[in-house]
Fold:
Amino acid sequence: MLLKNKRILISGVANKYSIAAGIAKSMHREGAELAFTYQNERLLKNLSVIAKELDSDVLIQCDVSDDQSIKDSFAELSKKWDKFDGFVHSIGYAPADQLEGNFVDVTTREGFKIAHDISSYSFTAMAKEAKPMLNDNSALLTLTYLGSVQTVPNYNVMGLAKASLEANTRFLAASLGKNNIRVNAISAGPIKTLAASGVKNFRKMLSKHSNRAPLGRTVTAEEVGNVAAFLCSDYASGITGEITYVDGGFNIAAMPVDEYES
Ligand code: NAD
Ligand code: 0WE
Structure:
């Protein structure tokens, strides 16, 4: 039980395929008490079913594009939990027109602004509001993607936003270290979630991934969840500001093994 006596707030569950849902499942198995935020009413129905299965009835609306909504959601959480032990930020967004086509042609000032605001700044914003409520030995976690450090066709301005999110992870770690709060990120391999379902040729990307990754397959949201549970547990007490890859080794391989091995 990695997370016995830990209270963790989880954002970003849109449905059962969400990476945040895999994380919630692992954390619940490891004994954590969970609360959830959801973006809007439309997502509440799915979340209610998932939260119930994980013994949680703390569901709070939080749209991270709005400072007041973030403030209100932590105020509401404080009615249930006076203190807690960390949160998972599993939120990313860019307008759909930014994620299809040639980077220099499709990227706009507005698209850039929204991608960075929702996908990176929101992590700082949530940390700011959570800080007074966090216990000693708390941990914050976010989800990033390889597109932050290598180009990926169509990922475009999201790659820039993820680079910002990873720097954000390091600066938050430096900022909150003296309060004994650790801040880490998981860089997950591609997983077929709602956010991925709108992406052109995503299935082709999944098979390319399996081909190049040393493990010869994609990863599941629960595999990401298991690492998330570890990083938020006291077993990871010496790790902060780190980007941990959960991608079957894809990022360390420049080429598939099988095509050149005799
Ligand atoms: P998902 O669609 O299940 O989750 C994305 C979540 O972001 C949704 O729950 C949505 O409600 C939330 N969100 C978007 N805008 C918001 C706002 N303004 N306020 C509050 N919430 C908002 O997809 P996912 O793949 O589970 O994505 C979760 C995280 O994992 C994202 O940061 C994504 O970039 C990252 N990630 C995904 C993959 C992948 O292949 N699926 C790989 C690596 C990293
Ligand atoms: O971070 C992500 C998903 C990011 C995402 C997806 C969408 C689709 C719907 C952000 N915003 C939106 N906005 C929408 O309107 N991933 C890591 C998954 C992903 O998305 C890609 C990928 C991969 C991998 C987009 C293009 C290329 C590869």
Q: What stands out?
A: The two ends are 45 Å apart (CA to CA).
